[in-house]
Amino acid sequence: MTTFKLLATAAMGLESIVADEVKELGYETQTDNGKVFFEGEERDIAKANLWLRTADRVKIIAGEFNAYTFDELFERTKAIEWEKFLPVDANFPVQGKSVKSKLYSVPDCQSIVKKAIVERLKKAYHRNSFLDESGPL
C-alpha cells in the first residue's frame, strides 16, 4: 500500500492541539506554523478527515521542490506523478499563494502549475488535445 506525506492545516496557535489529536490517532507528527505533518496510507487519510476536530483540512503533499524561475516551476511540477492522484477527466482548479518568493506573481504561478499538470496528464493518459475537466472536483 502507498504511504503519503500528509498535512493537517490549522489556525495559527492551534498546531499543538491538532498535533495532539493526530498523535492520539497513532501517528508521529512534525509541527510548523499552522501545519502538522504526518504520514499515512489511503485509509489513514479518511480516518484523519473523520476524527480530527480542530484541523481545517487534511491534504496530501504530492511533491516538494524549490523553484527559482518559472521554467523550474513548470518542469518540476510536470515531473510529479499527477496521474496517481487525478483521473483523466479530473476537474482541478489550482490555487496558490506566494510568501517570501522570487516568484511573487500568484496568477502566473497558478497558470504555470495548471499547464504543467495538464501536460503531465496528457502524456500519462495518451491524449493529444485538451483534457475534458468534466469529472469530480
Set out the fold topology.
Elements: E1 4-9, H1 15-24, E2 30-32, E3 35-40, H2 42-51, E4 57-60, H3 70-78, H4 106-124
Antiparallel strand pairs: 1-3, 1-4, 2-3
Task: Using brief descriptors, characterize the structure shown.
four-stranded antiparallel sheet, globular, 137 residues, 4 helices, 4 strands, alpha+beta
Task: Tell me what you see in this structure.
- The protein has 137 residues and is α+β, with helices and mostly antiparallel strands.
- Helices cover 35% and strands 14% of the residues.
- The chain has 4 helices and 4 strands.
- It has a 4-stranded antiparallel sheet.
- A hairpin with a 2-residue loop joins strand 2 and strand 3 (35-40).
- The shape is globular
Task: List low-confidence stretches.
Answer: none
For the biggest sheet, the summary is:
4 strands, antiparallel
Derived structural class: alpha+beta
The arrangement of helices and strands along the chain is EHEEHEHH
Arithmetic mean pLDDT:
94
Compute the separation of the termini in Å: 24 Å
Strand content: 5-15%
Record field, number of beta strands: 4
Lateral strand order in the biggest sheet: 2-3-1-4
Radius of gyration: 17 Å
- Count of helices? 4
User: Share of helix among residues?
Assistant: 25-40%
